[in-house]
Design a protein that fits this description.
mainly alpha; 24 helices
Length: 498
């Protein structure tokens, strides 16, 4: 059903006029009825659709065939999607138009219409050059070389032969860089030893890519180099360098050193937003986030990531009203249906931590998300990068329980976790905060004793800077704010028991 929902959303937004050629909305049949039910949000599951169409779930086979026919028609309509929308990749429309012309050229070549094929291949070459797509240019010149040879036009034949050799050389360099990039990316996304080993190689890889870009001016190599550059500096915590580079690329585009058709500036806006959040430049980050909102497609995965970083900036800046508004935007967008499980779990944590604040701070309203918690249910197994967050949530859930509590099992678990996982460099802040949690448990959740005995640890926590490495434990809410919140919860618990 998710596939059908996404297809309908795409076509309603980008190919509504062309859809009638494949599906006559004015007709009354089951295909149209299913389309309208999904489009209007009246059904979200196959079970709901069967009940709406047949009154029961007994005709599963018929429904499966119906949905399959509808999806097939909708995929045919996808060919008519308009890619000229400025929300999409800047080169997407020209790339698409070039491919359409090349398919036309191939058809004409197969029909032995060489002169007509040559006419359209010249148009395709013009489009491919606009976006500096070496792969498309190579294909264009192969067709042009073939066509002019059959036309017996020796002048054009020799001209195209030289162009073909030129772009073949660049294509070979791109291939070498592509292999290096894909292997590096594979190991960058792994953990522990593999990632550490490839990170040591990245400076040399970056320099090689930069030199090959200077040699070829290849857009593809430029994109790969920039991806590696940002990954390396984010991993090293050099977020000021990430911002400097993003500003530099934007200046290069503005000065026409790089075509705005070949560089997606939204990528650089996103990495800059992330860098500002990591550098704790919250006010500047919030101002910047507001200015770039229109750059992202509402309801897309990239928009979800943008909203998440915007939300974290708001939370860390104690702009709780704004944080709540951003969560509501996320929930109403429906984007959760297409997110990966990891992204869903991250948003679950975001919502739960926000609701912790909303339970105390009057400027924040609790978020009501019926069914969302079940959809984004967090596994009880540890999640890399979110272990401490899950432990903290469990602690706050413990504070909501009434009556006397036996904290011994919680103390033992947290103590073992600290000893096993938080004994390395870069884990000082989560270690200190969990020690504060342990202190509260050992003080039997007494707010006065916890505050008094926690002063030393809290002072050390405040003096310890947040880790800026890309893979550091995420603080959805800064630990200083969580300590204040926990003490308030302890006080509320004590008052409710007297």
């Amino acid at each position: 059903m998710i596939e059908l929902i996404r297809l309908i959303k795409i076509l309603e937004k980008r190919a509504r006029k062309s859809l009638d050629a494949y599906l006559h909305i004015s007709e009354e049949n089951l295909e149209v009825k299913l389309y309208l039910l999904v489009r209007d949000g009246k059904v979200k599951t196959d079970s709901q659709a069967m009940l709406a169409l047949y009154g029961s779930e007994l005709n599963a086979k018929g429904y499966k065939m119906l949905k399959s026919r509808l999806i097939k028609k909708l995929f045919s309509a996808i060919d008519q999607v308009d890619l000229s929308d400025k929300e999409l990749l800047p080169y997407a429309y020209i790339e698409h138009q070039c491919l359409i012309k090349l398919n036309r050229v191939l058809t004409l070549l197969r029909l032995a219409e060489h002169h007509l094929a040559h006419k359209f291949v010249q148009q395709a070459i013009g489009l491919a050059k606009k976006i500096d797509n070496v792969g498309l240019l190579l294909r264009c010149y192969e067709y042009a070389y073939n066509a002019t040879g059959l036309m017996r036009d020796e002048v054009l034949f020799n001209e195209y032969e030289q162009e073909l050799k030129h772009y073949k050389r660049i294509s070979d360099i791109e291939f070498e860089v592509d292999v290096t990039f894909q292997r590096a990316k594979l190991f960058m996304l792994k953990s522990n030893a593999s990632r550490a080993a490839i990170i040591r190689e990245l400076p040399q890889i970056m320099e090689d890519m930069r030199q090959k870009w200077l040699e070829t001016q290849s857009t593809k190599i430029f994109r790969y180099w920039q991806y590696i550059f940002n990954f390396y500096h984010e991993t090293a915590g050099n977020f000021a360098e990430v911002i400097r580079n993003a500003d530099k690329v934007e200046t290069m585009v503005r000065n026409k050193q790089i075509s705005d058709l070949n560089v997606d500036l939204r990528y650089y806006k996103f990495v800059k937003l992330f860098a500002l959040q990591q550098l704790q430049q919250y006010e500047e980050g919030l101002r910047f986030a507001q200015t770039i909102e229109s750059s992202f497609i509402y309801g897309s995965t990239s928009w979800s990531s943008y909203i998440e970083n915007y939300f974290l900036l708001a939370i860390h800046n104690r702009s709780y009203k704004l944080a709540g508004k951003l969560i509501q935007q996320f929930l109403s967008s429906g984007v959760a249906e297409i997110l990966s499980q990891l992204m869903k779990e991250r948003w679950t944590l975001n919502i739960q931590f926000y609701n912790l604040i909303a339970s105390i701070d009057k400027s924040a309203e609790p978020v009501n998300s019926p069914g969302f918690e079940e959809l984004l249910k967090i596994s009880q197994h540890d999640k890399e990068g979110y272990n401490v967050a899950i432990i903290i949530l469990e602690f706050f859930n413990l504070l909501q329980q009434k009556g006397e509590l036996d904290p011994s099992s919680h103390i033992d678990r947290i103590r073992k976790y600290i000893a096993k996982h938080l004994n390395k460099k870069g884990t000082e802040r989560p270690r200190l905060f969990l020690k504060l949690v342990l202190l509260m448990l050992r003080e039997k959740l007494d707010p006065i004793g916890s505050r008094a005995k926690g002063r030393y640890l809290f002072k050390k926590l405040r003096a310890t800077p947040m880790q800026t490495e890309a893979f550091a434990e995420v603080e959805i809410i800064p630990y200083e704010q969580l300590w204040e919140l926990a003490l308030q919860r302890l006080q509320q618990r004590k008052q409710s028991m007297t």
